[in-house]
Structures
1.
Amino acid sequence: MASAAEIASQARRTEVRDRWLLSAPALLIIFVAAIGPLFVMLAYSFMVKGDYGDVKFGQYSLDGWFSVFLQRDIFDDTLTFADAHLSIFWRSIKLSFLTTVSTLLLGFPTAYFIATRPRHTREIWVFLVTIPFWTNLLIRTFAMQQVIRNEGIVNSLLRWVGVIDEPLQIMHTDWAILFGMVYVYLPLMVLPLYASMEKLDFRLVEAGYDLYAGRLQVLRRIIIPLVSPGIIAGSILVFIPSLGAYVIPRVLGGGKNMMLGNLIELQFGAGRNWPLGAALSITLMVLVMVALLFYVRNASRSGATHG
Amino acid sequence: MPESAGASEKRVAIEARGIVKTFGQGANALRALDNVSIVIRENEFFTLLGPSGCGKTTLLRLIAGFEYPTEGAILLYGEDIAGLPPFKRPVNTVFQSYALFPHLTVAENVAFGLQMLGRSKAEIDARVSEVLALVRMQELAARRTDQISGGQAQRVALARALAPSPKVLLLDEPLSALDYKLRKEMQIELKRMQAETGITFVFVTHDQEEALTMSDRIAVMSKGRVLQIGSPWDIYDKPADRFVADFIGETNFLSAIVLGVADGVAKVRLTSGAEISATLAEGGVAEGEATVVVRPEHARAVKDGGQIAGVVENVVYFGTDTHIHVRLDDGEMFIVRQQNSRTQSCGFEVGDRAGVEIDADAAQVLKD
Amino acid sequence: MARRHFEIRTQPGFGLVALFTFAILYLPIAVLVVYAFNASESVTVWGGFSVKWFAEAWNNSAVQDAAWRSLVIAVFAAVIATFAATMAAIATTRTAPYPGQGFQYAFINQPLMVPEIVTAVALLIVFSRLKVWTGYSGLGWLILAHTAFCIPFAYLPIRARLEGMDLTLERAAADLYATPWQAFRRVTLPLLRPGIIAGFMLAFVISLDDVVITEFVKSGGQDTLPTYMLGQIRRTVTPEVNAIATAFLALSIILVTGFFLINRRKT
């Protein structure tokens, strides 16, 4: 007869083994079709590029990584910064930042507005934000295209009012990408903001007014600090997909106004430089990780003060 | 002591032998049960009593099979059930949260155990209505469990656990969620059901009053240990140690010196110099310094005389009786509980000098 | 002049911004839907109300194929992902922490942390080679890729549901002689059902919507509805694309509304 201690530890071992077996299919699928390929890609970034795409398997080189920021002159072999790549990096970061700020400026009052509605209508407002959120990204980008192009509703309206004579060229500019990203990612800002505002204790706001704070001071000194976890979460949820945007700049930005996602695609398509594409992908991933780390650090800090 | 005399002739239903249960490992390890041994007899209403965190619920869960002991063995009718998973143990539990299945009706909840045992439809139907009748819930059989009140949910949980006719019924603070009046009703109901079904009840509670009114025997637990097992009368009037005396009811502690023992009764001298006789706790000291306990209702405040004396510090009126707090001359506090009369006050005011007269046979010497 | 009393909760101008936001969110969609019913050839000139572009799209064999393919992939990916996610959610919740639990959790959520384009090109690298090696280039690759990124979406609501579920219910079942499998079938699964349905619907919508990964993993002639539309948008646009988008939109709204109603009934 086994002792009590043996039975207890045996039961625990069996339980842990069963739990691993249960999650095995999910882990396997994600390994095969998500995580594993990332490691293969890492290896590819250190290989010699093939002449017609792909790589020369087993031949290693740092050229892919070199080309991320540098370029070798074809005539005299001097190294210079790859201006084209740098400007694309800059555009990605700039547009992602502007998108985050714009969605925050629109999303904060919107989330506050929803959170201060009567309880039964709040759900409806949230639902109204959720519908675009779950609508196909491509369809929304396409819809934006129809609004901002030269013959679109914005230009027609402006011309009808008489503000402009010639249509404004918005399509195929950075503005188009910015409008598209703000429109597409706005729900990602509103939803987490709302989640933290819903929990806001309005007795604290009352206490603020009681202690002679004005509306702006209450907003700045009480409401904003209290909902800062929502602000951080919303910002990160907008910033990260903006950084990796691919469809929006492709449809709205045209061929010239590329973002990182399009530069990566280019290397696997017409550029035929898979190692560079792989290196760029990993660079993008690192940028995202940095943003996530920033979020984790701030989230834990604001959690410590407000939680 | 009628209970203990009768109980000893009955068969042993559950025996816990040297149970140790630790949670976690290394420095963080928590010893929830520390060498606990208990014998519960057939047909007994046995209560595990103690403050939260004393290990009483852990012991219950070990019997039910939701946890495994780190050391020791649990025997059900003499058989070691260590290797049996909960669904093979002929014991049923009434959970503190009731744990009624929210997707099933009242009747379906009660039928669940019988279905799992593979009983025939006819047998199940008969048994379900029988048990529902026992708890007086026949009318609500078709209700969903989220459409009934807390008291009703309690009855359903009881019916569900009784339906498979378990050898032992485990009740984990089943009345704690009910309001005072309902709790009083259910206490009587539970006693009635235990008598009608003849099933052994193991009842967990932190409410000493509940334990005293319902139990045949009580095990008082603290910090993972069993401090005393006995009838309610034993536990209340002859507490073995300081914790039991303090946890059950109100009591006064007096320091004393044991002068001698004769026929299990000790002669002790109090700090006032008065000598009184006191019963000895089992395994208690027979010589030297000791603590003596006296219940407040076993002493009277008097104007003159008494074995000890002091100054009245507080007079608290309770309706049925009055508590007189006397600061004794040695600095200790002594509380006297006196029954009120309709026409007279207790006769003492704050600042008065008062003597305390301790009833004969009222004092008990503690173990430590 | 009637004096309005001080509203504690109001911040001036916030209501206006909110209305502007909702206008932004819905105006482009409205324009898109309206032009789907345009009788004219071009998307720029309004030529009267007509449903002819819906008929056109309906009879377009390329659209039919793409729609059918989207549906097949979404059904397979969502079903497999829901199964795997349900098992994983049961494995990673409601127990004392065990070695590897945090690792499993991070692993399952990993597809959410990586930009889609990065996963897409990584899959292109690996799957293009595997297609050559195995000689198989059917829909299986797309289904596999979709299943992987659907798992975390299916996992979230199921896990949330499990964590909100009373552990004592299964104990009660075990106490009442139910074997672990019976307890799962008779107690856990029925209670988990809303979470599983929500997880399935999320996975289904996510798969149906995917453009980027599909674009990079698909072999020739394996367009799904979104990649077909992406190709069309680059060419001259006729209201046919609007019609397809509108139909797609309607489907999404039905699914999201269903999801909303299920969640609402739960609370």
Note: The first helix of chain B runs from residue 2 to 7.
2.
Amino acid sequence: MALQSLDIKARSATTTPSPNVRIEGAGPVAKLIDISKCIGCKACQVACMEWNDLRDEVGTNVGVYDNPRDLTDQSWTVMRFSEVEVEQGRLEWLIRKDGCMHCADPGCLKACPSPGAIVQYSNGIVDFHEENCIGCGYCITGCPFNIPRISKKDNKAYKCTLCSDRVGVGLEPACVKTCPTGAIVFGSKVDMIHHAEGRITDLKERGYSNAALYDPKGVGGTHVMYVLQHGDKPELYANLPKDPNISPLVSLWKGVTKPLMSLGLGLAVFAGFFHYVTAGPKEVEEEEKTD
Amino acid sequence: MQVTRRQFFKICAAGVGSSSLVALGFAPGEALAEVRAFKLARTTETRNTCPYCSVGCGLLIYSLGDKAKNAPGEIMHIEGDPDHPVNRGTLCPKGAGLLDFVHSPGRLKQPEYRAPGSKEWTPISWDDAFTRIAKLMKDDRDKNFIAKNDKGETVNRWVSTGMLAASASSNETGYLTQKIARSLGMLAFDNQARV
Amino acid sequence: MTNHWVDIKNTDLVLIMGGNAAEAHPCGFKWVTEAKAHRKARLIVVDPRFTRSAAVSDYYAPIRAGTDIAFLGGVINYLLSNDKIHHEYVKTYTDFSFLVKDEFAFNDGLYSGYNPEKRSYDKSTWGYQVGADGYVVTDPTLQNPRCVYQMMKAHYARYTPDVVSSICGTPKEAFLKVCEMIAGTATPNKTMTIMYALGWTQHSQGSQNIRTGAMVQLLLGNIGVAGGGMNALRGHSNIQGLTDLGLLSNLLPGYMSLPNDAEQDYKAYVEKRASKPLRPGQLSYWQNYNKFFVSNMKAWWGDAATAENNWCYDWLPKLDKGYDLLQVFENMNQGKVNGYICQGFNPLASAPCKVKVSGSLAKLKYLVIIDPLATETSEFWQNHGEYNDVDPAKIQTEVFRLPSTCFAEEDGSLVSSSRVLQWHWKAAEPPGDAKGDQEIMAGIFLRLRDLYKKGGGAFPDPILNLTWKHRQPESPSPEELAREFSGKALKDVTDPKDPAKVLVKAGEQLNGFAELRDDGSTSCGCWIFSGAWSEKGNLMARRDNSDPYGIGQTLNWAFAWPANRRVLYNRASCDPSGKPYDPTRKLIAWDAASGKWGGADIPDFKPDSPPEDGMNPFIMNPEGVARFFAVGLMAEGPFPEHYEPMESPLANNPMHPKNEMARANPAARVFKEDWASFGKPDQFPYVGTTYRLTEHFHFWTKHARLNAIIQPEQFVEIGEDLAKEKGIKDGDHVRVRSKRGFIVAVAVVTKRVRTLDVEGRKVHTVGMPIHWGFMGLTKNGYITNTLTPFVGDANTQTPEFKAFLVNIEKV
């Protein structure tokens, strides 16, 4: 069944054509996170861990509500709390659910050197297949949102799958289902944009004149979108990038290395384009031996 | 679809320019793309109610197995009941984490006894526990039961033993507890609603 | 809740005050977001902290903890002085026109009849004027200065916006903005819902906080209507049910009450509770009290309960005083209690003033814990280092710890805040040797009964005769118990209008409490639950979620008490002629053709009483109307008055600066030795308040790893000004002290806790979540109730957890 379990749009480091004759019945999917409705309850964090059989460390409190403090291999989504006064004297507590944005043009996939470790399904989900991951960390460099995390346990990269296993059988992702206030909704991307428009109208009527949809074009749009009360200032939301782009290094690598590759130049050459090299190569060697 | 590394090489060698490790000889055994298997496919679904706050959210509890005699169900996942008119499938962070309440290492598994002045628990059988508790209660009740007050009025109360009733126990438990407590003449009797 | 969770979607304005629904009841709060999305509703949050409810509100106003009556009194003043009230509603459906006794008086914070030694009132003057015909005297012109409207207006005229702002620390413009938004719902086509919880109850004047909120709602005509109501968000999954079943020291099932010592005469006991109508043509439904009572006694004592022995009236224990939790721990502390049973209750963590609770438990001869989890109370005798520093060798209490099942391992019903009884089904066996609560209670009871049977002892009759008709006596089944509290006919029940007509045959389950009789022919363990399990089967297990009227009533989903009614007082949603005030939100209406009330809900009314008969909507009150003037039913007075919390940062009550007796609630009970345990502002200058966080449930979820992960460690919240003053930064460890002890926790410094301007000076608040302790998977922490005072509300004795005094220092 493998490849057919969800239809493939793109695979990392793979140039064989993916089977793609089928058309998604519902079209590309999207998750819409309406920050104006989010109460920061972290039900999505719990549902994510529970569904995906993850359990992060019991950490400590460092003086904020954010816990766990950051994304990890066990926490594929976290709430980021920001206390801001956009208007003098009017406090707002902006709470953003952070996690993979499932970019239409996924920097992680582009950067990934391991065949089939990152897959983009035709419904828009960008999924990591850890069995193919070599732990090089290039996906992190390729990600404009700083999402993937390498596990210390198995040295592989992990992130939100948009519950591809649930979506694959026709269910909504676990975080979407659990969200008590309906701040997270899921459906076809077309429907989600329509839903967002209604929310933005409502927010404008309540005085948020800059309310807007966050669906950044620099990454080809995303399959996880936000409704922001202050659409003109995404950075208020725990530094959500205003105009995210795939690192030029990734594009450079793509452009330059293709010809270099065919000349058989080694790993070290293109690895120099990135800031760090992880234990990847060793992993690959081991795999070679078992082949 | 099964692609071996050798086939991969062949595909690549067939003239498609590659920007991957494949071209460098680093192809994994399988470069496949399968989503994780859907884990609820043949589990048993049971309808329940969240035991925490009073919203009374509907739950679907998923347990391993199909209730066959040889497969005692083990709860492996809990999510919201989409039919429930109030929660409509949603659950808050407490409800969404119920699996870890059910399987908490803090769950009590056997009756225990702590003797006066002791530093530790010792196991006790249910029968011994019930018998010992009943005796303690009877001794106290017989000694301290007040049939009549100083004015000679019939009052039939027992206030030297008290009880706090649960907040998440069922109505059926609550009703039985109320009935028993009053039959004993108990007044020092409250539930979590008091605080 | 007078209304229910889904009904919140029908509102135009939500006031969350004395609660934090987004955090404590997130899935119920969704109906607020639905009202916002589909009705353009607005949300106001009034709270000492900018909570996660405030984060999604349209308007937030800060308030000093413990000053809600001042705030709401100011709202009442605003509504009355700006004439923003629902005129027809208040004139017809409330006691606006009723005249109050001439002797009733209010002087400098105290009502007539106060006895300072007893800290209680002689309430004989707190009543209406009653005419020779036995009915209350009224003045429909509302001109008489003794009418409730005029008296209330005068009473609250003192709560001006400046006074409110000065007491509450709420900026005046914020207060007025809230008033203006609330006043907008005085018209018949607009409504407001009030959502409150322990932020109102856990005060020495908690009951009056709620009454003041209810008065605001009555003035606006918002009680009994869809999208309106006073909505108490109960904190646990079945404290509604356990309260309904009367598991409180002074109650019997269905809000019947136990007799006190003086009530030796059964008939007088019933007559006192079966009030006759106080106005012509009113129903006064409690006149049926004896039917409920006799049926209850038949359920408990079966054939032993006869007319000759007054249905075993004398078998019930009689009260010489209240035996609420605080009183019982006081008795325990005095060595008057030998045994205690904690069934799913963790008083060491949940009760105030840990040092007193811990010391009291150590004086017990025996303690029985029945719980699915290893609670702090079960190990009160164990040394857990700084978090529970006791010497086990010195504690002579025998402790039994009995493992019980949790929700997933049992069948049964729970009552939600919506008053809906919902059945749930067992999904798995309990771990290890754990047993269900019913089996455990039976295990203890049957052995006790055997001991009395064999050896006799003190008054064994009620024990030996307790009905116990279970197929497996050692394991009464939930089905059997549910059928017992729902009720059945012991003999044929006939129609009172036509004795030849049999309504229910002997042995059959009853359809509802209207079929209860006081001649011993019916048995029913909880009259308000009657009909939950009828001959149609278990209605609590119904799962039809259809909503034919589109306003969320779902009458075929499970079973609501009373009589499957979803919105209480729904007759008040119609005008006196029986037409809905707002046809777009119609609950019921009078249908002249069929001669019946009907619609989207079960009428909370006599179903065939035509509007012209003038029966009023509040059928449980002998007046038939709602009361602004509480007559003698409240401990501290018929009109709520602002009193300072028992521990207050102010030296006096700004409303009555010269009357020390009116500083804090004059009727709040304080045990003699506890006066010394209250702190003064010179040593403890900051307002402490305790609360829940959304990530945790009480002291349970610290045992669940997922919840431990998302909120792992104890913290306290302080504002930036106080942090600066004390040199405290985010993440520092701080020690918070009250007169009763201290806790150490991580500091969260936040803009969300504001410094308030109160009576011309700055008042800081220290916010403290409650969830930590020395058992479970979170980082060990101090029990927050180490700090809280041992004093409760004057009516309910619910402890004052929400406002007390502390000091704070960096560790």
Note: Confidence is low (pLDDT under 50) at residues 258-291 of chain A.
3.
Amino acid sequence: MIRYVTRRLIQMVFLFLVFLTVTWFLLYILPGDSVALKYAGNPNIPPEAREVALERLGLDKPVLIQFRDYMFNFFQGDLGVSFNQYPRPVIDIIGERLPRTLVLFLTALVTYYWAGFVAGKYLAWRRGNRGEMAVTIGGVGLYSMFLPFFAFMLIWFFSVRLGWLPISKFLDPEQWRDAPFAANQVFMRLFWVTLITAIAMFAASFAGHRTHSRVLARILRWGGGVLVIAGFLFYWFGTESGQGMRVYAGDIAFHMILPVLTLTLIAFAQVMLLTRSSMLETLREDYILTARAKGLPEGIIRDRHAARTALLPVVTSLVLAVATVIDGGVVTEAVFSWPGMGEILISSVLSEDIPVAVGAFAFIGILALIGHFVVDVLYGFLDPRIRVTEHG
Amino acid sequence: MTNTLPETRIEDPLASEVDRDVDSWWKIRLALTRRSFRENWKIFRRNKIGVLGLVIIAFWGIMAVMPTIFFVTGFWNPAVYDPVTGLELDPPTRTMTMVERITDPNTEIDRRAVLLDGRIPDTLQIGDTFELPLQPAPPDSRHWLGTDPLGRDILSQLMHGARASFFLGILAAVVTVVIGTTIGSMAAYFGGFVDAALMRLADLLIMIPGVALLIVIGAVFTFQLWHLAVVIGILSGFGGTAIVLKSQALAVKVKPFIDAARVAGGSARHIIFYHLIPNVMPLSVLYMMFTVTAAIQSEAVLSFLGILNTDTSWGLMMNLARTQGYLLQVTDFWWLTIPPGLAVTVLSAAFFLVGRGMDEIVNPRLRRR
């Protein structure tokens, strides 16, 4: 297992180097002098000042030297300086944007994956129902839904028509006018508290799965869940730092509902349809017939015998879903003006802020690579055949 | 087998008969194709979902042809109905009374008043009534789906958008299939280094988020519609499609007839193009459908974001509605947003449904017994 993981890790690093190289050449070199033009193309700038500016940015050096410098600097965490927000380093912008994208991305990923798997399981189990075709067509319709259109319909319905949720953006400026905190400070607190809660939740449920005693499992799962939620609430209502930030954190969470919902609904159908066909194949297996012949309860055959095997192809499909969700995230962020990586990518690309564009795209690539790596390892963990054959 | 036949023809006493066979080998192949098509159609027809997709595609196909018929027969005047340069010169009007003249729009927050500014003659006094042309206009007998803020016919744009989507989707799918089958079969046939190199490339390509990459490429080049189709085709052809088709080609490669062809002296090229590719073709047609879905979606997203350089497309119609500020006024201006949004969704869903219908032909385990 360790050899398998290191092998994948080395491959990933190599792939990232290729990816970064291609991105850099694509954006810095192919547009011709656009970087120099953007920065010092203004005819009012005297030639001497332009030369100084180009020299300071290192744009007067040969291409390969520039490339070498960029690569060295990249791995030291220096991605250059944004043109549009001039003295601000790119890494600073990305450091602010990345957690916002991650939250959107992870919440949607967990929600859609779980909901899709459960829905697909029941759909395959009830094959031949009258509602089956309607659900399939609805699923395909949702899957191939034009994302901006769908997002705007949701915004229109929930924000304009019903007025329940905010239209877009990250926070409500009116409410934050004399806030004692910076938005990012509150957001990071929210991020960590939620992450710790989620991990504790998962640990409780995992421990429940591992125990053999049914009573103990139930106590661990429910008791653990209640305890974790109580801790979460205690932090925001009981402690001093939590109480101060509560209103502002709540505002950010409130703005998150609609983007997460959009992303979840779009991606959910894909997992549902996949689980359904994978489950249908599994239900053909002989051991399902055996389980039936033994007279096992339906629920046990469905959940323990069929669904566990059917999970494998669905996990493989996650490899492709990672890219899909990142893509969907980019578009969702653009529609909701959610200040994350996708939004900064689009706005920097449209305003020719090349250093930011390269940095944002590189980090989107890193996100995709990490996603793939996790899925690969998970798959190797679930299916021993992969580990064995990959060794050779 | 066909390339060995001409040599035997010379000595063979039944030369004339074989000769006829040689001339008509394509007829045999055609008959075989027709027969397998008929059988597959029978399976496909049983699946209502696939048929529904086909019906929707046919509907949009007719929609894509309609404007040509309308223009040729003179039912539509190009000056009015052209999707890009057309203009309704005689739009419906609304009678209005002037209440107040706003000199500086910046000091007034009333958006409607600012919108009217510039369309009202200067000579008008307070209390006068005047006819205000309504643009975007709601559907009426001349414009069945209304007009957009620039006075162009929505239905005409929708039909031309269908044409653009078909062009893009089919071109992207053809490029994907040509590249995907060739790469997949080559990787399966040669194995070793070729296989490893091609598959690592595919690994890289399926990892890259496509829309993000297309946004970056769109920033560097001025993107035409067919450029986009080719780029999507290359990404998908070298990426996911190649991986799937390779695993299929591996299964075909171990069949006895491949060995027979090799023993008969068939070259690698001959075996790949005459024996491997025809046998992975059904699966590649299936992936063609999924590529069409992806291509239509990416095009719509890119032109919605204003990155693509096209005249007419569904995404562009949404883009116009967004930039002119009509997007969230769904009840008042539904004809600006609902038709293009639904069109993208329905057409890409239709191709996906056909793909799922074909899935049952390619993968018999999914069939209901």
Note: Chain A has a mean pLDDT of 79.
